[in-house]
Design a protein that fits this description.
Radius of gyration: 25 Å
Number of helices: 12
Strand content: under 5%
CATH architecture of the largest domain: Orthogonal Bundle
Number of strands: 0
Number of domains: 4
Largest sheet: none
Structural class: mainly alpha
CATH topology of the largest domain: Helix Hairpins
Order of helices and strands: HHHHHHHHHHHH
Distance between the termini: 41 Å
Shape: globular
Helix content: over 70%
CATH superfamily of the largest domain: MazG-like
Oligomer: single chain
């Protein structure tokens, strides 16, 4: 069966689930009720990519694809648009925003393409985009949103020139946070911690390190190392709450060594 037929088959199944005699749960869903699942599926795809397991990734990409099909079926029932309308709009946009591929324009680098993409987007939106910072989804995770905003500001020249300047800004914000900690002013501490995080996001951009990815991987490492502590203590018949800090620190370092050995293999 061709890929096109498989796509049509999936869309047909979705319509059947929503239709008479279908699934009550599927039939009850709305655009609003499905928002949480769209977000969850995106993160599960990211997790699958991290496992480097093609079978897992294939399954999770299917789960993610279900969401646009679901929304398309709901919109189709309302007479708003169809899955063909969605794909048509996407195809038109891809062609319009790649004039160097589908037209006569010449673009040689990724940076040139990013700049041209933003230029075309601005022309498309017209009066809708009143600010250079417009177009950043308001509900993005804060680190991702900060990165998007700093990228947009940089495109219009509001940026540092060198990485050492950004690093100095991080140290400056850290010092300001230390000063507010002395006063124990909760509102000021929150503001200075936010400034520090924002400066770190900027540093990540200059280092070509995605801060959201960096933090997510750090969390994963923390969970794995903490899991080693729990498993080892349990095997020794020791309750986690009864273990000393020194004992847990030793096991933490042991987990780090095991990670390094695994990475070398």
């Amino acid at each position: 069966m061709s890929e096109e037929n498989q796509f049509d088959r999936a869309m047909g199944i979705m319509r059947r689930l929503r239709g008479p005699g279908g699934c009550p749960w599927d039939a009850e869903q709305t655009h609003d009720s499905l928002k949480r699942y769209l977000i969850e599926e995106c993160y599960e795809v990211v997790e699958a990519i991290d496992t480097s397991d093609d079978g897992h990734l294939k399954e999770e990409l299917g789960d993610l694809l279900l969401q646009p099909l679901f929304h398309a079926a709901i919109a189709e029932e309302r007479g708003a648009f169809t899955i063909d309308d969605i794909l048509g709009t996407l195809s038109d946009k891809l062609i319009r925003r790649h004039p160097h591929v589908f037209g006569e324009q010449e673009i040689k680098t990724s940076d040139e393409q990013v700049a041209n993409w933003e230029k075309i987007k601005k022309e498309e939106k017209g009066a809708e985009r009143k600010s250079a910072l417009s177009g950043v989804p308001p509900h993005l995770p804060s680190l991702m949103k900060a990165q998007k905003i700093t990228e947009k500001a940089a495109r219009v020249g509001f940026d540092w020139e060198h990485t050492d300047q950004v690093y100095a800004k991080v140290l400056e914000e850290l010092h300001e946070l230390e000063e507010t900690m002395v006063s124990q002013d909760q509102e000021r501490m929150e503001a200075e911690l936010g400034d520090l995080l924002f400066a770190i996001v900027n540093l990540g951009r200059f280092l070509s390190v995605n801060p959201e990815e960096a933090l997510r991987k750090t969390i994963n490492r923390f969970e794995l190392r903490f899991g080693h502590i729990e498993e080892t203590l349990h095997s020794r018949g020791v309750n986690l709450k009864d273990a000393s800090v020194e004992e847990m620190e030793t096991l933490w370092e042991e987990a780090k060594i095991l990670e390094e050995r695994k990475a070398v293999k």
